[in-house]
Each structure stands twice: as C-alpha cells, then as structure tokens.
Amino acid sequence: MAFWGNKQEGENPQEPGQAPAGSLEDGYNEIVKAKGRTPGIDLAIRLSDLILEHAVRERASDVHIESQGANLRVRFRVDGILQDMLSSPKNADIPLTQRIRVLAGFDPEPPTSFRNEEGRFQKMLAGRPIQVRVSSFPTVNGEKLVLRVLDRQQLGLDLDQVGMDQDALTIIKKLIRNPYGIFLITGSTGGGKTTSLDARLKNINTPMINIITLEDPVEYRLEGINQAQINAKTGFTWSEGLRTILRQDPDVIMVGEIRDYDTAEISLRAALTGHLLFTTIHTINAPSIIERLFEMGVPPFLIGSSMLGAMSQRLVRKVCPKCAQPAAAPSEPVVNEFIKNMDPEEGRLVKDLILSPGANYKVEKGCTECRNTGYLGRTGIFELMLMNEDIRKHILDHAPTDVIKRAAIKGGKMRTLLMDGIMKARAGTTTLSEIIRVTATMV
Ligand SMILES: [Zn+2]
After folding, report:
1. From ligand 1's centre to the CA of 231, what distance in Å?
2. Do 407 and 394 form a contact (C-beta atoms < 8 A)?
3. Is the previous residue joined to 217 through a cis bond, with omega within 30 degrees of 0?
4. H/E stretch holding 85
5. Where in the sequence of the chain do the CATH 3.30.450.90 domains occur?
6. Gap from CA of 376 to ligand 1 centroid (Å)
7. Which residue, of 25, 156, 198, 255, has the greatest Cβ tally within 10 A?
8. Where in the chain is the domain with CATH 3.40.50.300?
9. 346 CA to middle of ligand 1, Å?
10. C-alpha span between 250 and 275 (Å, rounded)
11. CA of 153 to the centre of ligand 1 (A)
12. 386 alpha carbon to ligand 1 midpoint, in Å?
C-alpha cells in the first residue's frame, strides 16, 4: 500500500508487548554513550523507537519533539495534559528529526520555504500495530514535530468501553439501527468525538450495509468502511463530497463535521430520504445544536423531521485508584453557591444529585503510579438528548437553546454533562473538581 510508504518496519528492539525499562532520559543517555561506536543513523532509529515505545507505554496521545536552540525537548500529552519527558543538549550526530521525517514520508531535510507537511506511518509497538500521524512546523528555533499516536486499544474503539452507562448504551444501540434520520454529536476538540463516531460505525458494520464516511482528516482506518478524505484544494469539499456519496447507494453516512448551510441542508435532507447519518457539530452542549442549525439557516421543519437526537460528550480524567482518598460531599452552602446561576429546575436536580446520601466521593492525591497528578486514564461523560414531541414543537416555534434544554431535562429525561459527571464522581471514578473543571465553560 503506497499510503504507508516504507513504513511497516520490524526493527523493534523490544520483545512484543514488553515495555522498555527505565525512564526515557535513562534510555537516551544510554544511546548517547554508544556514539562513535555505532553509526548515527542507527542511533537515531533506536532513539525514535525508544520515544515511541515510551509514548505507548505512558498512554500518550501526542509526542512533541522540539528543538530549542541547543536543546532537544520531548514532551508527551497524557490524559490531555502535556508533560516533560526529556530535555537534553542536542546531539547533531544523532539525526532524530531526519529519521522521523523519513518514517513520515517527508524528505529528510525540512523544506527551505514553508510548506504544510503531514505524513503518517505504522509501526509495531508494544506488540500491536500503532498508527502515527506526523506534522512538522518550522519555529524560529528549529523544526518542531508533533506525532499523534493513534492507539486503538488505548481509545477503546468499542461502544461498551467509552464510559457510557447501560441505559444510554441501550438507547444508542437502538438508535443506530434506525433506517433513517440524523444523529449529531458535539464536544470540544479532542473530546473523543471521532472515537465515539468510529465506535458507532464499528457497531453497525456488516457486509449487508454500505457505510461511507467523509472525514478531515481520516484518523482511524476502519475495515469494511468506505472512508474519504476531504480536500478543499481539489474541490472535494464537504458539500461536494456529500453529493457524491448520495450517488454511491449508501445506507449509513458519517459526515465528519457540519460547518456550513450547504452541508447541513444536504445532510438533513438525506436523513429524510432513507439514509442514516452521523455527524459532529461544534457547540457547547446537545440542546444548542438546534440553535446552531438555525443560525446556519436550516429551516425548523427540516430539523424537526430529520433529527433523531443529539449527544454531547467530554473526556474527564479518572482519579488514580492507587492513591485516591475518600472525600465528604460538599456542604449545602457551597452547593447553593455553585448552582445559583443555573436554571432553577436544573439547579434543583444538580443539588439533589450532589447531596443525596450514598455517594462514594474521592479526592486526588498523587503517587508514583500517576506521576503525582492524582489521575490515571480518562473516561467520557455524556449528555444524550432524544427527540420527542415536546422538543419538536419548540423547534417548530424557533425556540432558543434554554427553552429546548429545559424541555429536554423536564421529568429527568435528559441528564446533562454536569449531571452525568456528578454521577461518575459519586461512583468514585473521578472527582467533583475534575467535573467542574471540564464543564465550567457550560454552566
Ligand atoms: Zn496515584
């Protein structure tokens, strides 16, 4: 496969599944010691492998390799937060960046004039094939490489593993078996939207149905699914791509993102004419998706008649099971202060949820296991809004987000992101402070 170039290599110094011993810093010093006795390119290969193995072992989603003057700095993003892994004098005779550039399919030397460079490669790491997407950026101090580590195992590309509770899972599994309609997902960048969409597609993927996706970029290769890459330069835009897809006899369509009226209008019409669509849209919560579609100019009747539901999701850090400490529920005055700007009905539900007895609250501490952060791994929190007659009526009335949100929450039908997060804090999976940090922009 030309796409992967020369990249499937078997030169892994570790036994499959074995994590390298010691820190990245130790491993780096070990490699530097071999200078002079071993060709520089061999050392660069060892060093790039070492960095990637550590990245997989530490569950890093991104690896930043930065030249800062005379220094080489390596940082990992773990559970959403960047951490320093290595900072050492640069070794000109160990051509690390050239090695990674070649793996990514770039020329060994960066271009003299700026050009957007993006590449990818696949490598056996920790006993499984890991895809790595590489981006190069010319800073005034030298080249910066960012490697996105796409580890399916880590992301749990399985509906049952994304952190949804049983009730929500049952609803979603039923929903994705609808013959037509549109389901929209919203969330912040890096909030697991793509994982969640991919998990959904994987769940319904059978030879009997034709699944086509439009993505930018295509992150995970999914077997048996026709994935297409948006390319605005060649005219393969979201709306053009969608028009093309509709002539490809699709059953299920995934549109990576709806950003404009054309894409929205074609998607919603396709959903009315016998296609099941999944897409993402950029808003802060599930109810505000409707207002966003209004703003794009989509007529209310089209939204009301095609939409199956919407979901908002965020990733939260899980508290470290090794060092987490039990915690008491916050006092009533603290909770009253917290809910004072909320809609009264929502505030009352949130207060009851925080204060009702039987919670197993935890507070973070820090140990070697979690690198003193108090947190280890992440899980999702979800807000699932299903279409019903009440919401549909408000859509036809062109109602604003707060009215739609109130209708969705009424009678405990929709649990908001905050409420779902509090449930996870009550269960001791995460902490209340983490939930408040993650949902702060929404209340
Ligand atoms: Zn810990």
Report:
1. 44
2. yes
3. yes
4. strand 81-89
5. 2-153
6. 7
7. 255
8. 156-442
9. 34
10. 7
11. 22
12. 38
Specify the CATH superfamily of domain 156-442: P-loop containing nucleotide triphosphate hydrolases (3.40.50.300)
**Residue keyed to tokens 């970029």:** 217
What is the Å distance from ligand 1's center to 328 Cα? 19
Beta pairing class for 60-68 and 211-215: unpaired
Query: Counting every residue, how long is the chain?
Result: 443
Written as one letter, the residue type at 164 is M
Asked if 155 and 195 touch (Cβ cutoff 8 Å), the reply is yes
Q: What is the pLDDT along the chain (443 residues), one digit of tens a residue?
A: 222 223 333 333 333 334 456 889 999 999 999 888 889 899 999 999 999 999 998 888 899 999 877 889 999 988 878 888 999 888 888 899 999 999 999 988 887 777 778 898 998 888 888 889 999 888 887 888 999 998 766 554 455 556 677 777 788 778 777 889 999 988 755 555 566 666 666 666 777 778 888 888 777 777 777 888 888 888 888 888 888 888 888 888 888 889 899 999 999 999 998 889 988 888 888 999 999 999 999 999 999 999 999 988 888 899 999 999 999 999 999 999 999 999 998 999 999 999 999 999 999 999 998 888 899 988 888 899 999 999 999 999 999 999 999 999 986 689 999 999 999 999 999 999 999 998 886 54
Q: How many CA atoms lie within 13 A of 34 on its CB side?
A: 15
> CA quadruple 157, 160, 163, 164: dihedral positive or negative?
positive
The token duo for 440 is: 């702060």
- The Cβ-side half-sphere exposure at 36, using a 13 Å CA radius, reads 3
Distance (angstroms) between ligand 1 centre and the Cα of 325 equals 10
Q: 2-153 in CATH: which number? A: 3.30.450.90
CA 293 to centroid of ligand 1, rounded, Å: 43
CA angle 359, 361, 363 (to 5 degrees): 175
DSSP 8-state symbol, 199: H
